[in-house]
Amino acid sequence: MTGTTPTHVTAQRLQGKTALITGGAQGFGKAIGIKFIAEGARVLVLDIIEPPEEFKGDFSNNITYVRGDVTSLDDWQKALGQALSVYGHLDIVVNNAGVLHKAQPSIELSDEEWERVFRVNATKGLAIEWAPHNIRVNAVCPSVGDTAMMPLFLGHNSSEEAQAKMLSSIPLGRVCQPSDVANTVAFLASDEAAYLTGVCLEVDGGRGI
């Protein structure tokens, strides 16, 4: 056991693979895209917003950006067609896109908010169905992360006291960083995790213990 991060990291674990990442323009998704490229993958990002500056310049050789909405079947087909047209094959899909309603009782949500949450946040119970085809399905379950969604998680009570209370519930004493999720997803997408499917891996600093 150790309290430090290993200094040696296996590089190029995703060499030659092509990945489609939804919601890849910011937060966890952007970090996953950057990590995948560092690991040798070619990446297609599907997101509803403009691409970040990090995806321009040198990164543009290994990334294709498609503006689209994950709740639209047409946009999914457009992204898949682009991946096959540009890269010739698709090996990995990271269904990262997600939405979060404001911290409030569920009975106060409008019908439109409920519909949006359920349409974007896909289920992860496909592992058994696709295992015979050697397609692995795993889920990453992060705790509250240092992303644009944190204010929604905290709701109206975003005081220092509320943040301290939230941190006190995490044994490792910090919120989840995008790099924590990106490193985990890169492992699950690599051949090193070839015998893992149906896993819901908690990346929560021990909060669920």
UniProtKB/TrEMBL annotation:
Keywords: Oxidoreductase. Pfam families: adh_short. It comes from the Eukaryota. Gene3D superfamilies: NAD(P)-binding Rossmann-like Domain. InterPro entries: NAD(P)-bd_dom_sf, SDR_fam. One of its GO terms (molecular function) is oxidoreductase activity. Belongs to the short-chain dehydrogenases/reductases (SDR) family. This is Alcohol dehydrogenase. It comes from Aspergillus kawachii. The lineage of its organism: Eukaryota, Fungi, Dikarya, Ascomycota, Pezizomycotina.
